[in-house]
Amino acid sequence: MIENTGHVISQRVRRQWPAALMMRIAFCLTALLTALPMIEAVAQTAGARTFNIPSQPLNRALRVLADQSGIQLAYRTSVASGATSPAVSGTMSTEQALSRLLSGSNLQYSFTGANTVTILADIPAGAGVNVDGSIQLDPIVIEGQRESAWGPVDGYVAARAAAGTKTDAPIIETPQSVSVVTKDLLTDQKATSLADALVYTPGVSVQSQTFSRMVDDVMLRGFNLASGSSGMLRDGLKLQSNVYDGGQEPYGLERVEVLRGASSVLYGQLSPGGIINGVSKRPTLEPLHEVNVEYGSYEKKQMSFDFSDALDAGETLRYRLTGVLRDAENWVDDVPDDKIYLAPALTWQPDAATSLTLLSSYQHVNTRFATPLDYTDVSSGRIPRDLFIGEPDFDLYKGDIYTLGYVFEHEFDSGLKLRQNARYFHSDVDWNYMMGNLSPVIDGDLYRLASYRTEKSYGATVDTSLERTFDWGATEHTALLGVDYYRRGYDSHRYRGTGFVPLNVDAPVYSGYPDIDFGTDRGSDNVSDQVGIYIQDQIKYENWILLIGGRHDWSDSSTTSYQNGIESRQKDAAFTGRAGLVYQFDNGIAPYVSVSQSFSPQIGMDTLTGASLEPNEGLQYEAGVRYQPPGTNILLSAAVYELTQKNVVSFDLFGDAYQVGKVRSRGIELEARAEYGNLGLVSAYAYTDANILESALEYEVGQQVDMVPRHTFSVWADYKLGSLGLKGMKVGGGLRYIGKTNVTDSIDVLGEPVSVPGYLLADAMVSYDFGALDQKYDGLSLTVNARNLFDKKFYTCAGATGCRYGEPLTVTGTLSYKW
Questions:
Q1: Same domain, yes or no, for 432 and 550?
Q2: Residue 606 — pLDDT band, cuts 50, 70, 90?
Q3: What distance in Å separates the CA atoms of residue 370 and residue 330, rounded to the nearest whole number?
Q4: How far is CA 447 from its chain centroid?
Q5: Which of 255, 630, 689, 756 is in the most buried spot, having the most CB atoms within 10 Å?
């Protein structure tokens, strides 16, 4: 429905929330308040833990013991099959809990290491006898500290992730492509933006660093994730309301999860390309103290710190404080690159069954917006790479982001887990810039038009779920039932200059603050609500794993134009599903197949039919195989897919909207992540055929989507040189090849679409641990990183008037101290 109100609707008018939404919010809050009184006080006994294991099948009870004690459990189920455990409750050591759990059974245990327990059955009649006379029995082995899907990883290889299931699940059991960029990889490669963090991940396309220093603009499998709230997540929740809100600071992340392909079954309104989920640093079990001082190219001066420790003797209350302070210039003249990032976090964990973590952050960015340029000016080099084409007295990009949220989890006596994640996000951005892409350079002059923008946005989201693991006959189930809610607001005021302002690119003379037409506000106020209910079950039977899920969403959104006062309002509802099957061979090979869906509502009207726009719909078929050799820290992955999006809105030459667009992406992705001795390795290859099948513009049909190369390849490796006599020294390097990309709306003299050339970039790293020289220097290290080592000149283009230069050679030295 479109209504001409005849006046500008004030941004201060409060919209009434539907009663159904209020009821769901009340449900979420009630669930949390109901769970809090169940928290038990923990005894201050050294070396003890609080266990809460109800009577149940022994196999299940042993898995619960492993979860509550923080150790990993691997065993043959036949040893304990058919047995029922007694209830174990109270504060005690792990050994005491295990002893009580096995009482009344024919099983015995012995500790064969600090974190290793061998459980043996009493000697049965006819048991096998070894040559030395010992009895041959099936063991249950409990060993090592279990990795968490929300926690740190040593090295480059993560074994678990939550993005694909919303549970703490092994990646090898997830029937969809998942990559995890670990904190160690972020540190070794010195990523300064989320785009930097993902350049060694298959299927990812990013804008140049001139753009990503401000915002996160990423494409997955040929589809954009940065348009509004369509795929950029933080801690499993949607983060931004608009791409220009600002980017995520990599130093504040424990890991970055990339889930490729249609995934609305878990997250609601999404781009079909998938999601990128940043996992915040959280308080640690062990004390953590780290300070880094950096100096680098373009007068970069930065200090970062990361502290975590307990606040009470019983270690039930722990904190973490992470921060970045940066004062820097940029390779573009007159462009600062300053940032302040602070992220306090607090965890309260009174017992093994309950935890509450408060997460907050503040980020301030001071830089200048990198205006897109015309293809002809960039491809020819007519505009120098380091030339500032704005106005020093006018251009700015200043943004402040605030977040406050929590992660709550409680496990009931029955084994039922309640989780609730919530966050409030707020962003204030002022950014003025001179648009330089309205025409190419004419006789040495670039004709620019001023753009003046102030924007406020917010996002309020909560996700409440119940997880239950249980056995049913010969099958093991992990069932998940949840409801989530997301409210976003984006209020933008946009004004233009009164006329073009020339700048001579050969001998620039700046004109000062331009005249702005404040009488015409081209902005709008957008508010939307989304509620979704989802259900999922992971079913294990012998070596088979079936993942099946469904979701129903309700969406209500409205947009009010400040220029003409017209309000567009739209309601949509959709069901999405997913099904996948994995088979795990004993040798570590795990093939899988899956099908999944996505949807994303759109505001507006179809010019051809006069009807409201239907939501975008995505459908993906994927088949793949993973290989994780037993006893190694290696994960190899391969996938093929077909991903189609329909109901895409395309615009004709007159700007009219037609919902006739259709895009299909087909591809192959290969990935290797490994830690082998002194070697760390990350490698990826992707073939992405993202083709426009239908469009209102006839010339677009059959073309490759802008900014999506058909071929990309990357490899990063580091090696510790201690075995070669250089103790404490580590070297690393990487190559990134990005193939040529299409520019759909530009043609050459032969009438063919033009292309952005492919390019090969090299990165390098060398570090030295001074503790290897003398113990008194333990914790002190120096690292030098170089990006684009050979200073390759390149550019990226999102259309013929959306081109930007890439990052030149950049060198950074980092002195770190950890204690």
A1: yes
A2: confident
A3: 11
A4: 39
A5: 255
Residue 735, Cβ density class (10 Å: 0-12 exposed, 13-18 middle, ≥19 buried) = middle
9 assigned to some structural domain: no
DSSP letters along 338-349, please? Answer: EEEEEEEEEEEE
The β-bridge relationship of strands 135-136 and 107-113 is unpaired
* Domains contained in the chain, number: 3
Q: Please, which residues bridge with residue 569 across strands?
A: 558
Match 């950890």 to its residue by tokens: 818
In the predicted structure, residue 180 carries a pLDDT above the cut 60: yes
- Asked, for residue 602, whether it belongs to a domain, the answer is yes
Q: Is the pLDDT of residue 78 over 70?
A: no
**What's the full length of the chain, in residues?**
819
Same domain assignment for residues 272 and 309: no
Give the pairing type, strands 741-747 and 729-738. Answer: unpaired
State the Cα–Cα distance between residues 222 and 262, nearest whole angstrom: 12
In a domain, 4, yes or no: no
Close Cβ partners of 590 (under 8 Å, ≥ 6 residues apart): 172, 173, 582, 583, 584, 625, 626, 627, 628
Containing 146, the helix (H) or strand (E) segment is none
pLDDT of residue 736 exceeding 50, the answer is: yes
Count CB atoms within 10 A of the CB of residue 227. Answer: 14
- Using alpha carbons, list the distances in angstroms from residue 254 to 107, 250, 257, 324: 40, 8, 10, 15
Chain centroid offset of residue 590 CA: 24
Q: Which residues are CB-contacts of 624 (< 8 A; sequence separation ≥ 6)?
A: 177, 591, 592, 637, 638, 639, 640
Phi and psi for 209 in degrees, rounded to 5?
A: -65, -25
Question: Which pair of structure tokens corresponds to residue 665?
Answer: 């992406």
Report residue 226 CA to chain centroid gap.
12
Report the alpha-carbon distance of residue 55 to residue 89 in Å, rounded: 10
Is residue 7 in a domain? no
Q: Are 640 and 623 in contact (CB under 8 A)?
A: yes
The type of residue at 25 is I
CA distance 93 to 167: 27
Q: pTM above the 0.70 mark? A: yes
CA 718 to chain centroid: 24
CATH number for the domain harbouring residue 88: 3.55.50.30
Which of 226, 252, 280 is the endpoint of a domain?
280
In the DSSP assignment, the letter for residue 169 is: E
Instruction: Tell me, yes or no, whether 254 and 390 share the same domain.
Output: no
Task: Kindly report, residue by residue over 664-705, the tens digit of the pLDDT.
Answer: 999 999 999 999 999 999 999 999 999 999 998 888 899 999
Query: Tokens 């404040």 label which residue?
Result: 518
Residue 602's identity, in one-letter code, is Q
Distances in Å between the Cα of 743 and the Cα atoms of 322, 706, 814 are 41, 6, 39
Which domain-ending residue is among 145, 175, 206? 145
In the 3-class helix/strand/coil scheme, how is 499-557 assigned residue by residue? CCEEEECCCCCCCCCCCEECCCCCCEEEEEEEEEEEEEEEEEECCEEEEEEEEEEEEEE
**Is 22 strand, coil or helix?**
helix
**CA–CA dist 331, 385 (Å, integer):** 8
Same domain, 328 and 473: yes
